[in-house]
Design brief:
- There is one protein chain.
- This protein is α+β, with helices and mostly antiparallel strands and 165 residues long.
- The longest helix has 17 residues.
- It is 35% helix and 32% strand.
- The C terminus is likely disordered.
């Protein structure tokens, strides 16, 4: 009998698994840009622990294994910055990313009163862009990442979070 993937708020004990998963998942993104200094690959374990402690972090679990994660925090302008969405490569394409986004959006809107969601992805990251557009995000601009990667900035109004996944 197979197990179901469950989505829940992350705990301090999840930080190391999130750290390892993030490193695995963002290898393909780094290869796409020929840049292995992108933030998810150079972030420290202590920094991940800090984010789990203070931000809105959700994980997808298959049994005891963390197979996906996403982080969100409310910025000074009231938007929720959502980032580092990742799903284990063997489980991509099964809706886990959309479920993680929905959980983060719901918590950020209901518990932290955000007015809109904002995220960004590399301009060549077609699968990411497809997911974000499918769940209601629209392109609002471009930016350059600290690592030099051209980014597409997308937003969605907080009232639309229920339409995701």
């Amino acid at each position: 009998m197979g197990m179901s993937v469950t989505i829940s708020a992350a705990s301090e004990q999840d930080a190391e698994q999130i750290f390892r998963l993030q490193y695995l998942c963002f290898q393909s993104e780094a290869a796409l840009y020929g840049n292995y200094r992108i933030d998810p690959l150079v972030q420290s374990l202590d920094s991940v622990r800090e984010e789990v402690a203070k931000d809105c972090v959700f994980v997808a679990r298959l049994g005891d294994e963390v197979v996906g994660s996403v982080r969100g925090r409310v910025t000074d302008d009231g938007a929720a910055a959502i980032g580092k969405l990742c799903v284990h490569p063997r489980l991509q394409g099964h809706g886990i990313g959309a479920r993680l986004l929905k959980a983060a959006e719901a918590a950020l809107a209901e518990q932290r009163g955000t007015t809109r969601f904002r995220l960004h992805t590399g301009h060549r990251s077609e699968s990411n862009l497809r997911l974000y557009r499918r769940v209601g995000y629209e392109t609002v601009g471009t930016a350059e990442g600290a690592d030099g990667v051209p980014m597409i900035v997308l937003e969605k109004h907080a009232g639309a979070y229920a339409a995701t996944a």
